[in-house]
Amino acid sequence: MNDSEDVQRLIRLKRYETPGEAYFEGFLKDFKERQRAEMLRGSARSLLLERIGMWFDELGGARRFVPIGAMAATALGIGLYFVGPQREESASSTMTASQGNAGPAGEAAAMETILLKLPKPKVRIPERSDVSSREGAPILPASAQSRLREL
Amino acid sequence: MPEVDRAPSSGEVPVAAVPQALPALSPAPLEEAEDRPGRRPDPDLDLVERARSGDTHAFDALVEKYTPKLYGLVYHMTSNREDSYDILQDVFAKAYRALKRFRGKSSFYTWIYSIATNMTLNFLKKRNRRRNLSLNDVDLSIENDPDFIEATSKSDPVREANLSELQQRLNMAMQKLSVDHRTVVTMFDIQAMPHAEIARILGISEGTVRSRLFYAHRQLQAYLEDFRK
Q: Where would I find the H helices in B99-205?
C-alpha cells in the first residue's frame, strides 16, 4: 500500500464527523420558517436585484459588453436630463399660444385682464382744501406765497 | 446556475503528467450522479415540478433528502459547523428562488450540488485565512471501520492519538490545502464521488480533477507525515 492510499484512508475517516439526526431536523424546521418568512415579506426589490445579478452571471461571454452598455445608459440618462427642461419650455409656450386661440371666452378673459385699471388716487394738499389734485396746483403754499410777495 | 471564476491552482499539471495509477481507491459512483447521455430520468423530477408550481412541501422533501449530503460537502470544506449551517440555509433559499430557471439539463442533485459548491467557494474566498475550527463529534462507529482499524494497527502515532486529536489533525491538514484542492479531496475521498461527476459540477475536465487530487494527496502526505510512520 503506497503513501497516497494511506492518506486517502485517513482522510476518509472524516466522514464519521456527523452532526447527528437532531441537527438535520432542526435545520429543516429553521428552513421552513425562513422560507415562509421570505414569502410573506416578498421583498420585490431584493428579488429584482438578485435576478439581475443572476442574469449578469449567465451572460458569460457577453459580460465584456456590460461596461459598454452601462456607459450607453449613462449617456442616455445625461442626454435626457438636458433635453428635458427645453421640452418643458416649448410645451409652456405652445400652451400660451393655444390659449390665445381658445375662442371668444378666452379672448374676453384676456381683454378683462388688459383693461383692468386702477382709479387715480386723489391727493390732498394741506391748507388748500379746494385743490383736489396736483394738476394746476401752485408749488408753494399760500402762506409762503404771501411772504414771497412781501420780499 | 451561478458561476464562480476559478483560477487554476498553482499545482496543476497536464493530464499526461499525472500517474495513471492514481485512482487506486475508486469510490462507488453515486446513484444520482448520472448526467451522461442516455441517463435514466431524474428521480427528483416529480418533486421538482411540484415545487416549481408552488408546492412548498415538495421542496421541503428535497431539502430533507439532500441536506446530509450537501452538509457533508460544506462542512468538510469549511471545518466549521456554524458556518456550514448558515451556508446551507442560504443554498436552499437560493435554490428555491432559482427553481423556476432549472431546465432539467442536469439532475436536480447535480444542479443543487453546484450551487452549494459555488456558494461555499465564494464564502471561503471572503473568509479570513485564520479561522477557528468548529467540529462535529466523531461517530463512535469509526472504531469498526476497516480503514481506522488498519490505520491504528500499523501506525503508532494514530494508535496513540485519541480520536479528538486525530480529528483535529485531519481538519488542520485539510484547511492547509488550497480551496480548489480541498474541494476535490472532499468530493472524491470523503464523499466518494466519481471523477466525472466532480468535473461536471466544477466545470473542469476530468484530467484537471485527477491532477488536483494528485497534488492534494501529496500535500496531505507531507502534512500528516508523522501519522504515517
A: 108-126, 146-154, 156-160, 163-176, 179-185, 195-202
The per-residue b/e assignment along A1-14, b for 16 or more CB within 10 angstroms, e otherwise, is: eeebebbbbbbbbb
pLDDT tens per residue, range B117-165: 999 999 998 876 656 778 887 887 888 888 888 777 776 666 667 778 8
Which CATH number is B42-128 given? 1.10.1740.10
| B25, B89, B148 ranked by CB distance to A5: nearest | B25
Give the pLDDT confidence of B156-169 residue by residue, as tens digits.
666 667 778 888 88
Instruction: Tell me the shortest Cα–Cα distance from B37 to chain A, in angstroms.
Output: 24
Every domain of chain B and the residues it spans? 42-128, 138-229
Residues of chain A in contact with residue B93, where contact means CB-CB under 8 angstroms, are 31, 34-35, 38
pLDDT in tens, B204-221: 999 999 999 999 999 999
Closest chain A residue to the Cα of B89, Cα to Cα: A31
Architecture label for domain B138-229: Orthogonal Bundle (1.10)
Of A4, A6, A16, the CB nearest to B138: A16
